[in-house]
Amino acid sequence: MKLISVHFFWHRILLIAGLNMILGWSYAQSILPVENNKIVFYEVNSTDSIPKELLHQNAYNWLVAQKFTSIVDSLTADGHKLTAISEYPVYATGYLTKRQNGSVSYTIQIEVKENKYRYRLTDFVFHYYHENRNYQVVPTGKIKPLEDAKASGWQKTWESNKKATYVLVNNLVADLKKAMLYNPAQEKVAKGPIKEW
Amino acid sequence: MRKVVLMAFALTTLFFNANAQDSTPAATEEDKGKFTFSGYLDSYYLGNFNKPLSRRNTGAYGLNEEGTTIPGGNARAFDYVAGQFSLGLVQTKAVYSNKKSEAVIDLTFGPNADMGNYGNYVGPLGGGSTALGIKQAYFTYKATDKLSFTAGQFGTHIGYEVIDAPINYNYSLSNLFNNGPFYHIGLKGTYAFSDKVALMAGIVNNIDNLNDNNRAKAIISQLYVQPVSGWNVYLNWIGSNEATSQTTFDGAYYSLFDLTTSYQITEKFFMGLNAAMGSEKAGSGQDASTWGGVALYSNVAISDVFGLGARYEYFDNTSGVRGVRNGLGAGTTVNSVTLTGNFTLADGHLLIKPEYRLDSYPKLSGGGNEQHQKFEDSDGVFSKNTQSTLTLAFIYKF
């Protein structure tokens, strides 16, 4: 009787561990939106009474403020298109403190037309970092697409890097949405009472 | 009593004012500062195909008074002992950095720490003093975005390899590493012209020593250039008077030029090169003796878990000024080939490195010199001019 219950106990442990692994892996995979096997954060947003010129200016100012590089500004049939690139550090969790294990580069595209805009963040690429002989953490030159599901030997850190990407991009997009709604004309109205008379 | 209360009130007000200023929204993460605690430990098993009676991989030191070749050479830097599990080094490293400064306390313990810090045993408390545990202890003041100053004890800028096993691809260390400086104590400044060009210059006591040999100070310099992304070039130099009882700069002058470069050629394939040329005078009025060497490194990442690396090295100490000597105690040359596998496991924390190394010294012949080769056989006779070893190294970093 005792043997049977011990056997059953270990079966349950193994089953739970297996389910945990599968769920953990699929969670990391599923949180990043994928389109044609590429990670893409895409959304169309409409704005009330914000002309395309102001949306274009807001998008450009926001890219500069967020320190995006290689900003390319081009005209489209009915508005503007801005593309730029950026990079953010990602970390491996140590036992007491975290250490940078790489960075992720990506491109952003913001298109504006009258009273609406859309953004697209894609081309997420992980850049391996290591500690060099001067004890500085620097890029090795090796890269890995963030779409890769497996990172043998460092799966846990790989998944944590993907989760960090999800959090960072969502914060970034929230900030972009706020910046795109900036309208000096409405700001003046909203200021309320002033001291001068 | 009233004065004490007033003083306490003033200090408290001052403290809270200072804290309030620190917590303004303008203070970024970088301004607030960051603390990092890291380190590693390593151990290994080494087998020597010569089966030396002394179980030492270090080869011959030279001749004793009876004309017999004796062990105690420096054919290996750290991995001295064969036929046993050995502990390498334990490191604990604390780094605090903020926008304007950085402090590094890098403490090491164990056999390799002692050897890497060998000049420190002349510390204030003599052999075994607490100074022996300090591999690095320095702080950097970032005067501007481009200019920084560092003071304290820091690892040398010379060479390709370092004491830290997780940073080197090969586990055993090169002769260039073993015959170059390990650390310096002093002051240095670095100016970064851009991300691709930087110049460092400094004044240090000397080479590998807690205390200076004399009043003359050593000059160090480094030019860093990145011609293309992924290709790093370091041109290094140190000039130092290593005399022990002289105060003039014309004493035992030591000069070492070093080129260290590495290039990640493709995503998977990496190459590196280290070349050095040194000279040292034994004293005033004497000619300088020279030594030098070149090491070529390459590695290929077969997968995220496994990579394979090779190192070929030629080291020339024919002048006998450094420690690489033959069984007669005379300066010599050595060719070394090292093949290292690199398994990365446990989310990058664990490195397992199987490694084969061959060292080949010129074969001595004639005049009974067959018994005065570099390496010892299983009978304790120095009859081998080559040595092959197989190592399995375990490194854990955190």
UniProtKB/TrEMBL annotation, chain A:
Gene3D superfamilies: 3.30.530.80
Start and end residues of each DUF4468 domain: 41-126
Superkingdom assignment: Bacteria
InterPro entries cross-referenced by the UniProt entry: DUF4468 (IPR027823)
Any single Pfam family the record assigns to this protein: DUF4468
Name assigned to this protein: DUF4468 domain-containing protein
Automatic annotation (TrEMBL), chain B:
Keywords: Signal
Keyword Signal among UniProt keywords: yes
InterPro entries: BBP2, Porin_dom_sf
Keyword Cell wall biogenesis/degradation set for record: no
Coiled coil regions in record: none
Pfam families: BBP2 (PF07642)
Signal peptide: 1-20
Protein name: Outer membrane beta-barrel protein
